[in-house]
Amino acid sequence: MKRKVPIINHKTWNAMIDEVSRRLPLRFVRTSRRWVHPWTIVPEWSDIAEKWVFRIRPGFVNGVEPEISTLAMLASERTLDRIEEETGARPEKDQSVDALITESPQIIVPGTRIIGKGADAESVSVSTSGDVKVEFEAVPEFFIQFGVTDEKVVFQGNLNSGIQEVQYESPGESPLLRACDVVLYVDRAAAKLDVIKGNPFLDSYSALLVINYGRSTPARERPWLSVTAKYKPIVEVEMGNLLEGTADPEFDAIKIATIYFLSPPGFSPELPMDDTWTAFVKHDQFWNLAHAPQRIPDPTPIEPIRLITGLAA
Amino acid sequence: MTTREIKVRKGEKVRDAWERLVRWVDSLQIIPDDGIDVRVTPHGTIVRVRDHQMFRHPFRVMVSGSSVRVSPGTVNDLIPVITENAIKRRIDNRDKDGNRETGKDYPALKLDTKKASKDGRIYISLKVKQSVSGGISGVKENKAGEQVSDNVEIVQTDSAKGPLDGFGYYPLAFLRASSDGGSIEEVFQIVHHNIRYEFQERRPSEADLKKDPNAKAAGRHLFIPT
Predict the structure, then answer these.
(1) Cα–Cα distances in Å, from B105 out to A54, A307, B69, B78, B108?
(2) What is the pLDDT of residue B113?
(3) Is residue A150 in a domain?
(4) Are the beta carbons of B6 and A17 separated by less than 8 Å?
(5) From B47, which residue of chain A is nearest by alpha-carbon distance?
(6) Residue A124 is assigned to a structural domain of this protein
(7) Is some CB atom of chain A closer than 8 A to the CB atom of B226?
(8) Residue of A nearest to B202 (CA)
């Protein structure tokens, strides 16, 4: 039996919407002065750049504020004045400039990663039985309550029998989640393995392995911030790795925060983020930082490792 | 989503409008967050925003005109001093014996904006004289049993590192002077904690002494928030 759909007068409906919206308590005003910790990030939509940007509450490393790259159109007058004074020319609005974070720049979010539906795999592993397992960055619990769904891809079969990818469809209306990381870098001296070749007959060794501390480029005067889609922590280089040729990075890095962007439900994954998205920040650092090598490099030359040949002995 | 999108035109299907209304209601869900508690009751939803009081941390730098006051903080449990009218006074407004100074305001450092760096930077910094043992020099016990020393001082410098004069410097705050040097435009607090100080000495190597038999020990001053 076909049900009859009720007819509601459009004026009645619109009056109901007006009444409901009037009664909703949607505005909260915080009147107290809140203490804001260093490195606090405040994202906002920029009508000038037509992109998401953020501001950052200045933080300091050893009392020195970092710099960050941004477009001249998003830099403050103070930055532009300083650069004009240093270089003799005022930057064009599309030009990239290095702003100090005490100069209140807006910084563009250049690229983001997808979390949840549509994400790229973080790792793919194959078990001894040939089963393929794919792992994705988990959706933070906070965003699950907004309806963000995890990416789920399962491979049926195994390497021997043939593999078929099975995609589980999530509700099309679920919102999309993207994120980027803000990372702080500080230059430092890096360990480098130098090989000094010798003559086994004259020097009693064929090679000397010496560890030196230095840099290939001059160290930057101040720390700097960078925005990246996904930060991967730097792995400390051990002596064994140096022997294998692994380079010791010439900087230290630490993640300051992750900025998450949440779309409205039903947003097409093909479209770029716009002002209908909502930004959230998860901070990793809350205080100013001190940076120093663990110990002062010893002024006494390190006794090199000698590779002695049988002939020389 | 705005209410304009939920309103209907004459003749529009109820189901479409209803689905838009449901989406709108869903988007109005109140989400608990840091400092925001949400409690759903049969009588309505209670949203409590926890009040964050002003954080009164040690070494808060306050600028008033051309004078700077610093709220009390400690370096190795010592209260630093400010030189005011050629007299060293503790920043907690107590005398050397730990008694409250009567009839006196907290000591203020007189700013000299002419000593700002080229780009108008002024730092309010701790200045520490190190002892041979790696601590702070000249520490004594006063009548109240407190450790005191005049060798932890708050001074004005034009860089975060301070001058290279053998003392240890650490910036408490960075002040930006106006271009004409007439006023302070911004204050950026750097230190929010009490400080532990250590001096790590690096004695001259044999090679250093060969080059210069009078080569002195060098080292680094570590200021660690506690």
Answers:
(1) 42, 71, 10, 20, 8
(2) 85
(3) yes
(4) yes
(5) A28
(6) yes
(7) no
(8) A296
Instruction: Tell me the chain A residues in contact with residue B177 when contact means C-beta distances shorter than 8 Å.
Output: none
Work out how many domains chain A is built from and give that number.
Answer: 1
Q: Tens of pLDDT along A178-188?
A: 999 999 999 98
Its ipTM equals 0.73
pLDDT of residue A313: 40
Query: Do A10 and B222 lie within an 8 Å CB cutoff?
Result: no
Instruction: Give the structural domain span for A124.
Output: 118-171
Please provide the size of chain B in residues: 226
Point out which residues pair with A215 in neighbouring strands. none
Mind listing the pLDDT tens digit for each residue in A58-86? 999 999 999 999 999 999 999 999 999 99
C-alpha distances out from residue A280 to A41, A110, A248, A259, B56, Å: 9, 16, 34, 6, 27
Cβ–Cβ below 8 Å for B188 and A65: yes
Note whether A10 contacts B: Cβ–Cβ < 8 A: yes
Chain A CB contacts of B202 under 8 Å are 296, 299
| CB of A102 less than 8 A from some CB of B | yes
Q: What pTM value is reported for the model?
A: 0.76
A12 touches chain B (CB under 8 A): no
- A114: β partners: A178
Nearest to A63 among B15, B190, B225 (CB): B190
User: Is residue A261 domain-resident?
Assistant: no
